[in-house]
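Minutes, project check-in

Agenda point 3 was the complex the collaborators sent over. CS summarized: three entities, 807 residues total, and the question is how they sit relative to each other. Sequences were read into the notes so everyone works from the same version.
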Amino acid sequence: MTEEIIIAGFGGQGVLSMGKILAYSGIMHDQEVSWMPSYGPEMRGGTANVTVILSDERISSPILTIVDTAIILNQQSMDKFEKSVRPGGILLYDPNGITHHPTRTDINIYQIEGAQVAAEMGNTKIFNMVILGAYMKLKPIVQLEYVIKGLKKSLPERYHKLIPLNEDAINMGMKHIKPFHLVS
Amino acid sequence: MADITLNDIIKPENLVYEKTRLMTDKELSYCPGCGHGTAHRITMEVIEELGMEEITIGVAPVGCSVLAYEFMNIDMTQAAHGRAPAVATGIKRVWPEKIVFTYQGDGDLAAIGTAETIHACNRGEKIVIIFINNGIYGMTGGQMAPTTLPGMKSSTSPFGRDVETMGNPLKITELVAQLPGTYFVTRQAVHTPAAVRKAKKAIRKAFENQRDKKPGVSFVEIVSNCNSGWKMTPNDSNTWMVENMFPYYPMGDIKVDGVMVK
Amino acid sequence: MGELKLMKGNEAMAEAAIRAGADAYFGYPITPQSEVIEYLMSEKPYERTGMVVLQAESEVAAINMVYGAAGAGKKVMTSSSSPGVSLKQEGLSYIAGAELPCVYANVVRGGPGLGTIQPSQADYFQSVKGGGHGDYKQIVLAPASVQEMADFVKIGFELAFKYRIAVLILSDGVIGQMMEKVELFDQIPRLTDAEIKEKYPWATTGKAKGTERRIITSLDLDSLKMEKHNHHLQAKYKTISENEVRFELFDCEDAEYVYVAYGSSARIAQKSVQLARKKGIKVGLLRLISLFPFPTKQIQVLCDQGVKGFLAVEMSAGQMVEDVQLAVNGRAKVAHYGRFGGIVHSPEEVENALEKIMIGG
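CS then shared the predicted structure for the full assembly.
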């Protein structure tokens, strides 16, 4: 079982840390993991992406052009990575700020109003956890228990008091995800 | 009559001078009349007199004194051109209880190794730097050095150093004295017995500073002659040095115990 | 089992330096490996083990600090990226001449010149053919995972002191910047001063009375002596070639074609093997772990086995491919594929290249 994910958006949206939490939860789950941040020329252009691989086996290439799941958080990333999802794979995106919605019909597409949900919860910093929650709803391979363990491992002790808030955000993400286009 | 051997003459009560055992018996590679030999000797005498031979590591440069390790009878490392202060930093940082010094010429210390010199001084490395300034590249055959005087002839300034196109002589000693990381900065010479005594006293102070863990570099410049490179007899070169080098590179302490004296 | 952590390659290497019992790290910041010195500075190894960490004023100074400390018998390390490693070549040549042990890393970025900060493997020639002036070699290990970034520091120090040689960990921006699970080896204590004096009698630690002084130098003005010294160095490199070859084989048992790759390209090529095998192409992967010494004999074994072609996959215009050609010596087809200048090839591109250049071409 291998899950290959790309998460892409603006710098500051918590793209890299979301990837890190996924990787940590993989380790807690005794999986092999890799986390590869954007390496292309777009690195300094205000956009950020990270490729995360979770697997029961030794991971080969940490760099991929085709992934199982793309989590897309801005238009530039949509333009770039919609085509990267393998047929039958998943594209999860936040429609906030998206003008050209995905058009592929051979993949399953879901929306999560992450920015809106986070704003309603009164803390825009938990945006990435709302997104993560939505993803977890789609991929039960990543279990809440391991994510919480991963958070504990990755966060400094002084932030552990924020873990319940993060858990709430994950639950809100799971609740608010909605299908946009499904392969019949 | 039994043969009289040398040992019959050399008796402790007759002994007025003895070569330090921290100089090897290897013939010096320096030209007759050059100040390097004296500078080597007084440095080694100081190390012997302070009882430091077992804990001292010297760093030899590139230049006339590249073979200093052949003459100095202690553990020595030969550094790449100009890098002696970095090499000494590496040694001193991992062996802080050892005594570490560099012995460098002007091309090495003040041209290709300027960055290493300035930064070792600026970090306040607890090392001794002995800097022989003879205003020329001796080993490579008398080319212009950063310290070559205005108008002074060398093989790369055959019509004299033209400061318009070749820049000014670098007073690096005054420069490093400005840095908070230097603790003792002095300029000496070894052309007369009196000067040698003063220079040795300065070198002794430099090594004592390191032994006593004083904060920062002890930097001893020795203005010296290069009779071969200057194309003069040894005596003439010393006279020329006093008349021309000393006015530009004045003798004496510049910074003592971390305080500027002039 | 050691401690499990999620770490960047650069961080794992820095942590491994502390755990390997290094006495000092001297470095200078350069992208994409600045995490090494940043990690070391924030970890305060001087409190954990007494290890010294110093930011030098330049790459040149850093490698010369390594030279000084290594000559004094200490376990020292530095790291940099391509333009910085070019600056270090002077010191590395002196280290080879004076036969000093040290470990250093090059987290390679695209060149030439200032190039780019993106990953590359275009420093292969510099790494395995000498780099600086003179006839010399260094052991070159190419990690392909964060785990190996850590492990090769430990192995590197062992080899460095075994042979009194510089060991280069040749990484790139992919391996340096990516995070993976890493199992950290337990702390190895730093050698005591007395142990250093006993184990490394050649080191400049101060001349005890009545003993010969120690001299660290690469100079000998007597050419006959220098020739003899060079023969000694060459004999050492030969011993290393015979004893320290490291590599890994994937799916080579029935392979008609073999990818030859190292570092991140080997990871990518491993995926390409899977893609090609799905199409029924019998391809395997020879992953080079040591680049010097080069696994010439293993390539010949693969030729004996009937491999028809070798595709050298590297993020360069074709450097390692020359050593593959020398090893194959005309017995099979040899070709090169790689993106370069900071572009990383994808598994699909590498698989396509196999079909087009190797099988179709």
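Noted in discussion: The radius of gyration of chain B is 19 Å.
Follow-up: revisit at the next meeting once the mutant set is ready.
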